[in-house]
Design a protein that fits this description.
The structure is a homotetramer. Chain A is α/β, with parallel strands linked by helices. Chain A contains 11 helices and 14 strands. Helices cover 30% and strands 22% of the residues of chain A. In chain A, strand 1, helix 1 and strand 2 form a beta-alpha-beta unit. At the B-D interface, helix 1 of B face helix 1 of D.
């Protein structure tokens, strides 16, 4: 099987290359970007020397359609909405790592992303690829909207509680913290080392574009879900997301009961590791496709705390994309992504 | 005026030395610890060379009582509860930086600290020294319980809303993040660099001993306050606390109204800087006694987010202790602590 | 083929587990430590959950000899010198990651390590495993002294110049910088996060025990080599070593000529990446077995600068150990260790 | 006395503001930049809120000459060479923090800075302000070239050895490491957090523009000095420079003798702290004007290692500038800059 990557010069694209070049069942056919055509990828990413010899090419969709089986689009907002449907029409499967197909409601997309959404018909074709909870048979799906980094950590942590109706649907509070690689490869004042190092920032308060993505999925699972509070912080680290979620239990329960619920719901999911009697930290999943989750009930407040950690570039982006690819192509789900985290 | 410091070998004590040696109205009489008597403090803290020549001495309370005007106790839990009352009896003013006098309810203290509290009569003598909100005339006070680092950030951020009855008293959720200096000077596996660097941890979930300290003060201000959710995270940075607080508004309001309320309530407080149209980060107060606060209302959820940042070792410990000393001794409140933050 | 690891609870041991559990040609038979018998390794290293189920066992050398083909000893100084020869006698191959067999001169060892060396006869059996430069057929070798982290970076960077006689043998100056994982898993004041973060330290000036290891190898290559200056710094990062080496050219040359010499000497060595027109940084090899090297000639001073970077836990320890194992067992050299660095 | 700052929006300018606003003998008259006129400095640097109310103004040299006593220029290369002489002509004292007046040889300047130098006559007016070693009476000097950050650390560490003729003049090797604030306030790919964090880089090998500055001063002290090897590394920390210097002793000596030489030469210099039996780290001087130095002799190699650390923004820039101002204006040398380092 052959894959192409459109948008290989960002961190998401580079991480796709890292994963796919070792994948036992697919090979990288070509890599594409809007500029720097003819340049070797290992010039932009010297850590790839001796392993990756590909050069960046312009993407010719017709040709790609003839030569590859699946295309990953790791492009800025507003690009994939045009490219992906064309590729699908030509018979290629597409996994889009941008936000273009994640939100089915076009008005919501426009409100949060400030640009026009894809056509409704195209949006309806896309399946939201939170792999552990996809209900459709992915082998029959041609277009996957790969989840955002924050929604992945959040939704995996909330799913058991929301689906079982355990929590107050109108009192969901999510305090998320991310490493700085989440801001992408382009330098900016907000990611300038001297002002980011040894510093903790909060950003996009009440305004992060991943908010409606989270809400739409939660409402798919439980239509009573109201608007969530979702806040994002920038921690002085490179990789990792921790979502700490504060929820109100409808009825008294125990940490033990909740942990068992999570263990049961995720018992067949290799990449979800439910913690018992301890809490996860971001470094424990760094470089891997794991999502580690702990849940605790506080008798004093009748509130539940869920902690969910992922590597934002792996399970939060490229790792999950390959996990989806594996299911689309009928491979074993962990083929090529069963890395042990790099610790310390 | 002369001051002594008992417990000078921890970070809180060292920071007291840094501040007091430049204070224009007091001088450091002596520094004390339970061990290493005769050793120069600048051997333990080489950054003090050429500035501090004091050696560590055993604390003789009788002698201290004769020679100094005020004593700072920066000792582990359970030490000051014995020392401080003796000093007060002998006519010396005491500012305790430990938790021993912060909680008035003895059972609550025992439950969270796992040791016996000071006698009730002694506890009743102590004034909780969240300087901006102390109602008593500090010049008439002899024993101050200097607030914990987390409670300082949290209470300064919640006070206007709680006192004005703007928020649901039973829905207070506090997500706090601290730098690692909060764990003290002693090394441990939990603060080992390779496992702390580039990592984000959550700890003492539903079990942090600062929880009852926060609740007791909030209830002093508004007796309807219920138990709060208070969770602490360890961020890979040395100094700084950010408390992100999620609150439910009783009635619709606006960010502008809330900001004006904060500005009004803190208009005479030099060390509280209300942010307008932006959010603070921890580095913006590093090395200073400032507490920077922003508040925002989210129309979608009817919830209020408050963000409060401090330097845990300054406003969260030694800086506030000196602020309290200034008021006890009748000095100008910012005497000796009006540092500009060290940025970047 | 079956392998055992003695000393699995340190960072070197954990990294061996990470690498070996994915190795296509060997399987981990058992893991051993001097304490915590019966405890699961994934309790000590939670990042291994769902991947490693082994428990720590006491090492019974007789039994091991019967059941495994090769043993890795990742033990503190002075342990392997007793264990390894016994295992070799019983017919097992051993790769020792400690310093016990790296220095052939017993007096030198005692002087720098402050403990007695292994017996001369045993030392003579051991081959120094700087894989790229081993001359013996490793398939015929039973005991490998795996090089130290610093010597690996240093020797790979110096070999071409020393072997070709290009530099003044008495003017070798090595300024080495390491990440803190090099200090091992045990916490100490010197690795306490608040005092290590945002800080650069120098340590063991003129006294690092890797100095004689470097000198002995250089002298094996060129007997005129005099004592080297070797200084080590602790940089606020987790992984990575950079050795910056200052050398005096015997004759005028050019950066181009030197680079070509390095390219030629390492043309068959996949894990050595000679940089041209740029210099490497430690993150570019993080998590991988690569050693990236650049060389530059300064016409003004007639001096040569060589920069060599490795991941101290991979090429500087466990990765190279597996590279040696591959050669001992007749596998392809990069079997199981051809990871792409984790960047960013 | 009144001071103005031209170039207040960079880190050097901001640090001048931090220091000068608390200086007991001068007041900040005005702050200037080439853009953002009318904007409050505390909008650009929010950490200055409540302390600094100045707005950025265009610099009118005639008016400044009438109203202020001294001007600091913290401008990019090539700007002060035009401004400073005009101000001096009009009777104002100038301290230039850029490189424009540091190198007396115009050809050397052009070769390393790639732009034309100031006129020779103007260069001859400037005094190189390495405060501890300035021979002229600074009260009679009108234009000071404030030393570069690296040269400050390097020259303070080399001066005793070079002046006393103890070392081989043709074998001076300087391995320097800096925090990222040395790269200035402007963001770039090279200072992007995800690629700088947890990473160690080497840059400008054999090509750093501080090389000729170091050489010219050393040659002023000892004309036999040959070209030096000077290499710079970027460490993942915000502030701090460590220069590790490798020197060849002309005759055998001891660490004790060398340390005593340093102690003697710097006995009247409050800001130079000679370490005995230990080595300094960068954090021990952070936020302060101290330069901590250790020297060690290695009997094995007959080489001397000198380690010198400073805060690049204080002693390496703005602190030393104020130290020079103090001497120019006849104040006590440590007036306003005798901060204790911020540790941890």
């Amino acid at each position: 099987m052959k894959v192409a990557i459109i948008g290989a010069t960002g961190y998401g694209g580079a991480e796709l290359v890292r994963i796919l070049h070792r994948h036992p069942k697919v090979s990288i056919h070509s890599i594409h970007a809007t500029s720097m055509h003819g340049e070797k990828l290992n010039t932009i990413f010297p850590h790839m020397q001796h392993l990756i010899q590909d050069t960046l090419e312009e993407a010719d969709l017709d040709q790609l359609a003839k030569e590859v089986d699946i295309v990953f689009t790791a492009t800025p907002s507003g690009v994939a909405k045009n490219i992906a449907p064309l590729l699908v029409e030509k018979g290629v499967k597409v996994i889009d790592l941008s936000g273009d197909f994640r939100i089915n409601n076009r008005e919501t997309y426009k409100k949060w992303y400030k640009i026009n959404a894809a056509e409704q018909e195209k949006l309806d074709q896309a399946v939201y690829g939170l792999t552990e909870w996809v209900e459709k048979d992915l082998q029959k799906v041609n277009l996957i909207a790969n989840p955002g980094c924050f929604p992945t950590a959040v939704l995996l942590g909330l799913a058991p509680l929301v689906k079982e109706g355990i929590i107050d649907e109108n009192m969901i509070i999510i305090d998320a913290k991310t490493g700085v690689s989440g801001a992408g490869k382009s330098a900016s004042q907000g990611t300038h080392f001297p002002e980011t190092n040894d510093n903790l920032k909060i950003y996009k308060v009440h305004a992060h574009q991943h908010t409606p993505e989270i809400e739409e999925q939660l409402q798919n699972w439980n239509e009573k879900i109201g608007p969530v509070t979702f806040t994002t912080h920038l921690a002085p680290m490179t990789r990792g997301i921790m979502a700490t979620m504060y929820l109100t239990a409808k009825e008294s329960t125990t940490t033990k009961n909740l942990t068992e619920l999570f263990q049961k719901q995720y018992k067949d999911n290799h990449f979800i590791r439910i913690q018992e009697g301890r809490f996860p930290s971001t470094k424990e999943v760094s470089g891997s496709n794991f999502c580690d989750i702990a849940v605790a009930y506080d008798e004093r407040t009748k509130r539940i705390t869920v902690v969910s950690v992922i590597d934002n570039l792996v399970k939060g982006a490229s790792g999950q994309a390959v996990q989806n690819m594996n299911k689309m192509l009928g491979f074993d789900e962990h083929e090529g992504i069963d890395f042990m985290p790099l610790f310390p």
